[in-house]
Amino acid sequence: MVLKIADYNFRLGLLTQFKATLLLNEPDIYEAGDTDFNNIQEVVWLTEIGPILQELEFAINHLKDWMTPEKVNTNSFNFPSNSYIINEPIGRILILGCWTQPFQSCFIPLIHAIAAGNSVIIKPSEKAPHSSFIISKIVADVFDPTYVRCFEGDGPESLKFIMSQYKINHLFYTGNGLIGRQLYKFAADNFLPVTLSLNTICPCIVDKEADLKIAARRILSAKFLSAGQTCLAPNYILIHQQIYFKFKEVLLQEISKFFPQNPKGIIQCGKIIDNNNFIRLQKMLLGKKILYGGHSDKNNLHIEPTIIELTSEKDPLLYEEILGPILPLATFDFMEDGLDVLNKHHSCLAHYIFTQDSTQADLWAQKITSGFVGINSVMWPATNPNLPYTNKGLRGIGTYHGKFGFDTFSIKKSVMISKFIFDRKFLYQPLLGKLKLLKKLMK
């Protein structure tokens, strides 16, 4: 008896059609990125379209393997039998996206949910309205609304309506911790499984053995994508005291090349999402020592790429998520001092470590706790679908990306197929007097 793969062609067809439609709407995604964030096409590709296409291609190429029943060993007590694990859909998945990367936060979990055979409801963030509209348009173009549909509008009101009209079997949320806590309480009251990917701190360490120029370039390139409004952007740089002044000099040299001073206006790296966040970021700069940038334009919601110097390890900017084009610098003398700062975060989304000393890199990686660690890399490890994006503690709960996302949206069903060629009469009644035999067989 062979267990067959059900619905493979259906799921593959949906993923293939989704990919084709995404590419067809590429100009509209660029326009939404420009309107909502003032991002150029290259930034939209790096932060949105590219990662989605990578996940899609990975899922399409591996779907048959993921869906194939996994044969596992059978213990001697159940001989002769064959044992399998089958992945079954959970049911209906509710995906709540975030504004920082609206397409990616909606579409990557959608890929996993579809690959696992689920139906889906998507609620994009209303803070990025043009992106939300295009997300809804793409979903409507690809999917039957009884299978996948999108709701736009106010978050709380939409969620209230969705929960009143649909039975949800799993909730997937990407966003800030405050809303995540509220959703977790709601899910607990309703016995609803959740995956929470919450925005937290992403520290960056530059050790004394780092290649300073490459470290500076990689950090700056990632930090100021979309005006620093990506959840994996480095929150601050913790620099070894021995190379601090040299690295600061290199950093300022490189940022002046990436974002040269323009006497006619503000140096632009994207638009702040709304006025509330603009005011929040301006307050962060009050009283700070600004090494580069710092100017802003309230009418256009622009803040220059800005580097600031912190003078105390108690500075609030070491402990709150920035989500903007502000990069604080701080120092440490010994690894233990750096770890003291890092451990005060309790749980980080990611850590980035720059060093050419492999022993030091291993030590940093072992001693810190985060979703993933990038050694001499910033952000881009998250684009590898072979690596899990793991949430724990204050950064959320659950795992996704690649096969890990497929598993998140699947239920593991155990199947054992026994044969008739050997009749295990020792299990038949009466059992009296068979204790010694049962103990021997069931080891």
If you had to describe this structure to a student in words, what would you say it looks like?
By secondary structure, this protein is an alpha/beta fold. Helix content is 40%, strand content 21%. It has 2 domains: 8-198 and 392-415, Aldehyde Dehydrogenase, Chain A, domain 1; 203-377, 3-Layer(aba) Sandwich (Aldehyde Dehydrogenase, Chain A, domain 2). It is built from 14 helices and 19 strands. The strands form 4 sheets. A 7-stranded mixed sheet has the order 5-4-3-6-7-18-17, sandwiched between helices. Helix 1 (8-24) crosses helix 5, helix 2 runs antiparallel to helix 5 and helix 3 (41-67) runs parallel beside helix 4.
Instruction: State the end-to-end CA separation.
Output: 28 Å
Shape designation: globular
Helix content: 40-55%
Largest sheet: 7 strands, mixed
Write the layout of secondary structure elements.
Blueprint (H helix, E strand, L loop, with lengths): L7 H17 L1 H12 L3 H27 L2 E3 L8 E9 L2 E5 L5 H14 L3 E5 L5 H14 L5 E3 L4 H11 L4 E6 L1 H13 L4 E5 L4 E4 L5 H12 L12 E5 L3 H15 L16 H10 L4 E4 L3 E2 L4 E2 L2 E4 L16 E7 L2 H9 L4 E7 L3 H10 L2 E6 L13 E3 L4 E5 L1 H7 L1 E9 L16 H7 L2
